[in-house]
């Protein structure tokens, strides 16, 4: 096995035990980046000298017997919309293509404290607002499985890089599936934690900007990885309860598990988009694997997920309305077209001008849905859903035929319903029929990340292993 093929947990253990050096692993990953990144365009701002210097420091710390973090010496990438001290932070905008961050966002600081070695910055769409990854500043990112299919967005660069072996772990963020959907598109594990588990605090920049309420209440940081074990290790390395985050928690709650098997409610369809046959087959397979692992599996209808998906279209779109002038001015043509389709879809559900009353009532209804889902799941039950009602979308499906573009939104009900409610969710591969990876999603009660990851591990243990053609 090549060093770049090692998992994050294997690298961390090897470095700790001095069976392998961080410097050798980083060199192998840099060589891998040089081999495959020119074709995939997953990472930008790769700086080998800095990465190798950090790896040398990691090895020196091992030799000196210093206390080591959980990702000590492990190569990772971070996302272009997340501040990393001294690194490019362009948000995929031509107007900011040379911008560099003065400090670390909290999640990056947590990764740095864990001993991770930063290799590069992962590509995003402009303003990180598409399920596709391309922009005028840095170009298009390809899916290692099929160049004609999206790698997902907005963490598409992160997913492409991990799937192709450039890094074992990437940091991403998620307000509409931006971690979970790219992971599903590229055959990876993607973790969206409970809101507040990983700090959303941002380092001060040159421009002071107030985030809209949906970004504050829904957006989270989390990892993408090739294995559940790596995703778990990276998640807990990133976990950073932080009083500076208005939705952060000061400490993790201790949840009491009920006796008996964990229950899994299978939700295939909420009436918004019929699942593609390969998607439905993946859900069936995952349900069978979980039953084989001892979970109590049952089919269930859950209309509140459809209601949450509809609220996503109302609340996020109304927040975006306030930023439209800036986004249209600084964004690229693809973003402008995508925004038009966002508003057109929302108008189908809520009318052209929903108004303040609908917005306020939407936020009030959200709280009720959260309570109802938490009462259902507690600390001992999970949901199993598709990752999306369709296989990975064809490239630029959101900017081509208008009706096709509008059909993407209902297909993404599993991606958009979860952020509205703030629950933890993991996408995990369940096969690759027709040469395209298909993921399923597991959702747990608030702060039950380990419960969700245990179920994802049960699926991973029984699913066929996946290697994209670009990583062979």
TrEMBL record:
Gene3D superfamilies: Amidase signature (AS) domain
Alphabetical list of PROSITE patterns matching this protein: AMIDASES
SUPFAM superfamilies per record: Amidase signature (AS) enzymes
Pfam families: Amidase (PF01425)
Domain Amidase: 24-453
Record-linked PANTHER family: FATTY-ACID AMIDE HYDROLASE, FATTY-ACID AMIDE HYDROLASE 2
NCBIfam families, sorted: PRK07487.1 (NF005687)
Name of protein: Amidase
Organism: Actinomadura fibrosa
């Amino acid at each position: 096995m090549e060093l770049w093929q090692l998992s994050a947990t294997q690298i961390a253990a090897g470095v700790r035990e001095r069976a392998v050096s961080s410097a050798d692993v980083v060199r192998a990953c840099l060589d891998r980046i040089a081999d495959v990144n020119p074709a995939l365009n997953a990472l930008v701002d790769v700086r080998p000298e800095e990465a190798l210097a950090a790896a040398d420091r990691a090895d020196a710390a091992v030799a000196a017997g210093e206390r080591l973090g959980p990702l000590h010496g492990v190569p990772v990438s971070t996302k272009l919309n997340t501040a990393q001290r001294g690194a490019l932070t362009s948000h995929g905008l031509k107007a900011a293509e040379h911008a560099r961050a003065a400090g670390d966002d909290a999640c990056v600081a947590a990764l740095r404290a864990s001993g991770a070695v930063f290799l590069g910055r992962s590509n995003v769409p402009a303003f990180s607002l598409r399920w596709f990854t391309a922009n005028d500043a840095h170009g298009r990112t390809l899916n290692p499985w099929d160049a004609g299919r999206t790698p997902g967005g907005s963490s598409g660069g992160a997913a492409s890089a991990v799937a192709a072996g450039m890094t074992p772990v990437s940091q991403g963020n998620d307000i509409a599936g931006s971690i979970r959907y790219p992971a599903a598109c590229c055959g990876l594990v993607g973790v969206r934690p409970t809101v507040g588990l990983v700090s959303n605090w941002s380092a001060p920049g040159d421009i002071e900007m107030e985030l809209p309420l949906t970004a504050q209440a829904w957006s989270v940081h989390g990892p993408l990885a090739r294995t559940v074990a790596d995703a778990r290790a990276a998640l807990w390395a990133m976990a950073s309860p932080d009083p500076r985050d208005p939705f952060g928690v000061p400490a993790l709650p201790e949840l009491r598990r009920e006796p008996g098997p964990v229950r899994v409610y299978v939700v295939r369809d909420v009436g918004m988009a019929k699942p593609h046959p390969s998607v439905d087959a993946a859900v069936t397979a995952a349900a069978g694997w979980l039953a084989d692992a001892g979970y109590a599996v049952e089919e269930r209808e859950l209309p509140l997920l459809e209601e949450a998906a509809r609220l996503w279209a109302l609340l996020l779109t109304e927040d975006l309305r306030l930023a439209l002038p800036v986004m249209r001015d600084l964004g690229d043509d693809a973003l402008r077209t995508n925004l038009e389709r966002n508003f057109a879809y929302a108008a189908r559900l809520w009318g052209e001008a929903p108004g303040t009353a609908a917005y306020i009532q939407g936020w009030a209804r959200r709280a009720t849905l959260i309570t109802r889902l938490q009462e259902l799941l507690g600390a001992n039950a999970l949901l199993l859903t598709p990752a999306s009602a369709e296989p990975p979308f064809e490239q630029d499906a959101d900017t081509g035929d208008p009706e096709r573009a509008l059909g993407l939104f209902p297909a993404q009900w599993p991606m958009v319903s979860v952020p509205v409610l703030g629950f933890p969710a993991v996408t995990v591969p369940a096969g690759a029929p027709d040469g395209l990876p298909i993921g399923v999603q597991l959702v747990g009660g608030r702060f039950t990340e380990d419960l969700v990851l245990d179920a994802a591990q049960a699926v991973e243990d029984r699913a066929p292993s996946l290697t994209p053609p670009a990583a062979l």
